Amino acid sequence: MRKLLDKFYNEDVEDFCTRLLYFFNTIDSYFFIAGLSSFFFYLVYFDVSYSVIPFLLIFGSVYGVYRICDFYPLFVLLSPFFLFFLLQMPDFSFQVCGVLLALNTVVFVVIQILFMGIPDSIVSRDPTISFRKLWNSIFTIAPTTVSLSMSLFFSWLFSLILVFRPSPLENNGLLFWVTIFLAAGITYYFRPKSFVSENFKPETNGKIVDKVIVLNIDGCRLD
């Protein structure tokens, strides 16, 4: 396997794999791909029709909620408050919930192995990374796609809302949207704050360098 990776490896492949890794490693792009994939499969499997306008309104609302809470775990802890009202929807079905959960799980595993694990194995030339990354994601709780629980929850919730379509014109639907935005606001308020140090740049009286090269290193502090 290692010899095969070494033979297949080149700089162009590495660049493509790196871009692929970053796209799927970001949970705010992952939830859309995973949730939408499971939702479309549901539409085809159950032969359900769906109009564009409700989809756009729901997607915009969910995206706003996710941007506010920023995918932090506290939002998951607060989820029973708004999920209670989602359960009160007239067409709510636990069978559909189970199907969507299974679909989102399959999508997660496929993306983890095909679009994250294998490219990571190619870049690092280590064929075991795919399986180790998938295994470690079970025990990781963080706002990233290398966390099974967080990735699955946000994509699953997105597909649930698309399927059951809680309407703000109904009592339970209105309470659902009020509580989910409230949960997002609470999560935003208590989210971890990044430390920003004071300005420590030295004063200069004249030109001291000819050229400045900025390295955009992943994880580098902005200050």
Can you write the helix and strand succession as a string? HHHHHHHHHH
Rounded mean pLDDT score:
82
Instruction: Give the helix tally.
Output: 10
Poorly predicted runs are: none
Structure description:
Keywords: Membrane, Transmembrane, Transmembrane helix. The chain crosses the membrane at residues 20-42, 71-87, 93-118, 138-162, 174-191. This protein has 223 residues and is an all-alpha fold. It has one domain (2-190). It has ten helices and no strands. The relative contact order is 0.16. The mean pLDDT is 82.
Name some characteristics of this structure:
67% helix; 223 residues; mainly alpha; 0% strand
Describe the structure in brief:
The chain crosses the membrane at residues 20-42, 71-87, 93-118, 138-162, 174-191. This protein has 223 residues and is an all-alpha fold. The protein is built from ten helices and no strands.
Q: How is the topology of this model organized?
A:
Blueprint lengths: L1 H7 L2 H15 L1 H19 L6 H18 L3 H5 L1 H8 L7 H31 L4 H9 L10 H17 L6 H20 L33
Helix pairs in contact: 2-7, 3-7, 3-9, 4-9, 4-10, 6-10, 7-8, 7-9
Keywords: Membrane, Transmembrane, Transmembrane helix
